[in-house]
Specification:
mainly alpha, 212 residues, two-stranded antiparallel sheet, 66% helix, Rhomboid-like fold
Length: 212
């Protein structure tokens, strides 16, 4: 536990990174391979293996994907944890993964396996980072800074290029888009609900005043 406290990111990020790294290294070194049990296979999902939409994004597509996903996850999660608690973004990204996986299985039911990687988690996290504070400046150096929205777009571009270079087929790309759409829709509904709750909590003695 003392080691985790000294890391520049939370235990939630550390745990997620460890799981992704172990699954990838086990497959690369051929010590163990859980792909057949964890990958997003529509036929298996519709036959009751409902953990697959949640487990499939933990399967990195090789060492380069593992490296890119790890760096991106550390940056995005550390940014989000300035606004959310670790459990909040974990539940959010789990929701995006499950919805995107089920939608992809429904749209492509005949696919043997839909290639899903940690990129599915990252695009959902990027959507959250952009929605939370899009105009906030991120300082790359004492003289160079970019907005959070631009930084997120740069990461999204790298993730997309990596997916295309790895030959990800249409079902996998569709799952990425579904994850991003789920994140956007969830955050829109959440903030709409919070806004309504805030409006209802206005003290009764304010009604009739000009500021309303």
């Amino acid at each position: 536990m003392s080691l985790l406290r000294r890391l520049p990111f939370s235990a939630a990020t550390s745990g997620l990174l460890v799981v992704i790294a172990l699954l990838c290294l086990g497959r690369v070194t051929r010590l163990f391979d859980l792909t057949g049990l964890l990958a997003l296979a529509p036929s298996a999902v519709w036959h009751g293996q409902l953990w697959r939409p949640l487990s499939a994004p933990l399967l990195a597509n090789g060492l380069f994907d593992l490296l890119l996903s790890g760096v991106a996850l550390i940056w995005i999660s550390s940014e989000l944890e300035r606004f959310w608690k670790p459990l909040e973004w974990l539940l959010y990204v789990a929701l995006c993964a499950v919805v995107a996986g089920l939608v992809a299985c429904a749209v492509f039911p005949q696919s043997g396996t839909i290639p899903v990687t940690p990129a599915l988690l990252l695009v959902a996290l990027l959507i959250a980072r952009v929605r939370l504070a899009p105009h906030e400046r991120i300082h790359l150096s004492p003289t160079i800074s970019i907005s959070a929205a631009v930084a997120a777009l740069l990461w999204a571009g790298m993730i997309l290029v990596s997916a295309l270079m790895s030959g990800m087929p249409l079902p996998g790309l569709f799952a990425l888009a579904a994850s991003a759409a789920t994140g956007w829709a969830y955050l829109t509904l959440r903030w709409s609900f919070l806004h309504r709750q805030s409006a209802r909590s206005v003290p009764a003695n304010r009604f009739g005043r000009l500021e309303l």
